[in-house]
Write a structure and sequence with these properties.
single chain; mainly alpha; 2 domains; disordered N terminus
Length: 257
C-alpha cells in the first residue's frame, strides 16, 4: 500500500506521514469541538472572560450570540487548521461576519486559544497597548454597533421579525438607564416592541469599555426622534456596579412601564 502521489510504502515513510496523521487527528478533534460549540445553548456566564488580547471583543460579539463562550474556552489548544474549520462551519450555519472580522477572530483564536498561547503577562501587555491606542482617539459608536450589534439588530437597527427587536424608534432607548443596563447585562425573556412580540436572549456586552458603551447607546438613540442627553462613560461606570442577570434585566424593564 502506498500513499497517494508517493511510491514509497507508508510504513517506510512513517516520518513523512506523521504530519498527515496529526492533521487527521486535528480535524477529528476540531469536529468534536465544533459539535460542542453548535450544541451549546444560549446561556452566558456573567464572569466568564476570554484571555486578553487584540481581537477578543470581536470573538465576544460574534461567538456568544449563539452559544455559551464556555464552549470556546473549553476548545483551547486547537491547531490553526481546526479553528479555521470551526469558523468556516459557523459561517455555514449562518454566522454573519465579514472577511476582516473573520481574520481578527482567527488570529485571536489561534494565538490565545491555540496550542501555544502567550504568557498571561504578554497578553495583558498587548491588550493594554491596544486599549491605550483606542483611548487616544474618540470612540466611534457606529463602529461599535457594526461590530457588536448589527448581526442581530441589523445594520439600520430594524431588527429581525420574531427574533430580534428593532432599535430604530424603540422607546426603550429613552427609558431611564435601561439601554445601558441592557448592554452591560443582556436581556432574556418575552418583550413587546411596537406592538410586535419577541422572545429571545441577548448576551451581556460588558466586555466593552465604558466609553464604547456610551458611544453605542448614543449612536442607536440617534435613530429616534427624541433629543436625549448624551451618555457619559461615568454614567456607564455607575450602572456597571449594578450586577444583574439577563432575566433580572427583563424584570427591571417590566417595572419601568
Amino acid at each position: 500500500m502506498t500513499a497517494q502521489g508517493c511510491s514509497r510504502p507508508l510504513c517506510a515513510n512513517a516520518g513523512a506521514a506523521a504530519p498527515w496523521r496529526r492533521t487527521a487527528r486535528a480535524l477529528s478533534v476540531g469536529a468534536a469541538a465544533l459539535a460542542g460549540l453548535l450544541s451549546g445553548g444560549a446561556s452566558w456566564g456573567a464572569d466568564l472572560r476570554l484571555p486578553e488580547g487584540p481581537g477578543a471583543n470581536v470573538v465576544y460579539s460574534k461567538c456568544q450570540t449563539c452559544h455559551d463562550l464556555q464552549y470556546v474556552v473549553d476548545a483551547k489548544g486547537l491547531l490553526p487548521a481546526q479553528w479555521n474549520a470551526v469558523l468556516a462551519s459557523m459561517r455555514d450555519y449562518g454566522l454573519q461576519i465579514d472577511d476582516a472580522q473573520a481574520k481578527q477572530v482567527l488570529q485571536y483564536l489561534t494565538t490565545y486559544l491555540g496550542p501555544h498561547p502567550p504568557p498571561a503577562a504578554s497578553a495583558s501587555a498587548a491588550a493594554s497597548t491596544g486599549a491605550s491606542a483606542a483611548s487616544a482617539r474618540a470612540v466611534d459608536g457606529s463602529k461599535v454597533y457594526a461590530e457588536n450589534c448589527a448581526t442581530c439588530h441589523g445594520a439600520a437597527g430594524l431588527g429581525q421579525p420574531g427574533y430580534y427587536p428593532p432599535l430604530a424608534g424603540n422607546p426603550d432607548l429613552a427609558r431611564d438607564a435601561l439601554p445601558i443596563v441592557v448592554v452591560l447585562n443582556g436581556l432574556s425573556g418575552p418583550i413587546e416592541v411596537g406592538g410586535r412580540a419577541f422572545d429571545n436572549s441577548m448576551p451581556p456586552l460588558d466586555y466593552l469599555s465604558n466609553a464604547e458603551i456610551a458611544a453605542v447607546v448614543d449612536f442607536v438613540r440617534g435613530w429616534g426622534s427624541a433629543k436625549l442627553e448624551p451618555v457619559t462613560p461615568e454614567a456607564v461606570a455607575e450602572q456597571r456596579q449594578r450586577r444583574m442577570s439577563p432575566t433580572e434585566v427583563h424584570d427591571y424593564r417590566a417595572k419601568l412601564k
